[in-house]
Amino acid sequence: MTGTVELYFPPPHSEQLLVSFPAEHVMMLTLNRPQSRNAMTLQMQKDLETLLDWFSEESALCLDRVVILTGAGKLFCAGADLIEWNKDQQSGKSEEQERVASSRNGFGSISRRQLIKPIIAAVNGGAHGGGTEIVLNCDIVVAGEDAKFALPEVKRGVVAAAGGIPRISQISGHHVWLLC
Length: 180
Fold this sequence. Notes:
InterPro entries: ClpP/crotonase-like_dom_sf (IPR029045), Enoyl-CoA_hyd/isom_CS (IPR018376), Enoyl-CoA_hydra/iso (IPR001753). This protein is of the alpha/beta class.
């Protein structure tokens, strides 16, 4: 898991994220729910936030320069886990959903994160909804030939405000908005 890296503290455990160090100065986080198209559960978002905080603070990684975020299986990330979301809505647990979505770091713990070290999205297959929002908020995107990006929220009457629309306006520039 850690290759030649000697850590002061091991990375926080997550059943939904794999942590590896594939090269010197590189930490890779793999969204590991391929059976659910790597849809982000509340726990997965919390774990991602905890791991990124750990990466920022771990003394042994002070020289590590980059985080690579990728997905296991055929898709990068299908966005929020809508099955979990619907269950929480029906059971009255929607305040937990809202708390995570409005957390200090935003959806997927990336859209409002103030990380000094860059995050690279290695996109395999699709990045839909929140998956696209995560990609938009990474510093560098490396996309495979099969990569597809979508913000399908509009089909459900929802705005991609957890990191998609604000970031598109920042990175695309005024001239793109004039075309709309």
